[in-house]
């Protein structure tokens, strides 16, 4: 019986590859979006503008303090009641961007705050504007603090793509659930799902470890 299940799994393996491609696509696009938004929010979070910091703080607290599945349900089921109708794929991207940008924001804000105030004062005395100070002095120095945890966060975000299956996106986890109905050997099916997730996460884990060692040196 096990050999029969294994042969069936081999037959439908292309279906898993399609799920892997969907997972990779969601992860790649959402990582770009949440990185861009997160960097902007992180700069605001590290600024001296009290009101903007509080607004961003509320956003970050909500995104980090609520389950990701709840955020997906809000985007997919609640937003349409407000006139914002989204298909499953863009809804998944938006939910990933909301959640991921909050974590990226805190990483970026922590990196900027780690730079001594003397660097701000020195760059200001050189006649640089605030934006020039950030772009030319502060951000380049803070990257050694930002990059290792940022890459680590990317790994977590890739694994969080499994949650978007609850709104019907046929990514890797949903492919596993569909397959289990046909092949009632859950361990075999989800072992394959785990291996495929590992195949896209492990290179980032190695990159994170390398960058952490490199930045420490």
Structural features, described:
The structure is a single chain. α2 runs antiparallel to α8 (172-182) and α5 crosses α7 (130-160). The chain has one domain (2-216): MetI-like (MetI-like fold). It is mostly helical. The longest helix is centred in the N-terminal third of the chain and has 33 residues, at 13-45. It is built from nine helices and no strands.
Descriptive terms for the model:
MetI-like fold, 217 residues, elongated, mainly alpha, 9 helices
**How is the biggest beta sheet arranged?**
none
Query: Could you give the distance between the termini?
Result: 54 Å
**Spans where pLDDT lies below 50 across 5 or more residues:** none
How much β-strand is present in the residues? under 5%
Based on secondary structure, the structural category is mainly alpha
Q: Architecture, CATH level 2?
A: Orthogonal Bundle
In the CATH scheme, the class would be Mainly Alpha
The gyration radius over C-alpha positions equals 21 Å
Number of helices: 9
Percent range for helical residues? Answer: over 70%
What order do the helices and strands follow? Answer: HHHHHHHHH
Number of strands: 0
What is the global morphology?
A: elongated
What's the CATH H-level homologous superfamily? MetI-like
CATH topology: MetI-like fold
- The figure for the number of domains is 1
Mean pLDDT: 85
């Amino acid at each position: 019986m096990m050999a029969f299940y294994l042969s069936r799994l081999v037959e439908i393996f292309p279906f898993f590859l399609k799920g892997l491609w969907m997972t990779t696509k969601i992860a790649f696009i959402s990582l770009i979006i949440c990185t861009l938004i997160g960097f902007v929010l992180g700069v605001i979070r590290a600024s001296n503008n009290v009101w903007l910091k509080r607004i961003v703080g509320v956003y970050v607290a909500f995104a980090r303090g609520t389950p990701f599945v709840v955020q997906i349900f809000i985007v997919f089921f609640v937003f349409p009641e407000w006139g914002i109708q989204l298909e499953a794929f863009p809804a998944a991207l938006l939910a990933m961007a909301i959640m991921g940008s909050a974590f990226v924001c805190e990483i970026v804000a922590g990196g900027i705050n780690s730079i001594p105030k003397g660097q701000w004062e020195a760059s200001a005395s050189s006649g640089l504007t605030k934006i020039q100070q950030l772009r030319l002095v502060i951000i380049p120095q803070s990257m050694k603090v930002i990059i290792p945890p940022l890459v680590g966060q990317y790994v977590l975000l890739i694994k969080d793509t499994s949650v978007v299956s609850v709104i019907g996106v046929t990514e890797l986890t949903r492919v596993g659930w569909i397959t289990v109905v046909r092949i009632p050997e859950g361990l075999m099916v989800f072992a394959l799902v785990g291996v495929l997730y590992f195949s896209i996460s492990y290179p980032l884990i190695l990159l994170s470890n390398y960058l952490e060692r490199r930045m420490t040196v």
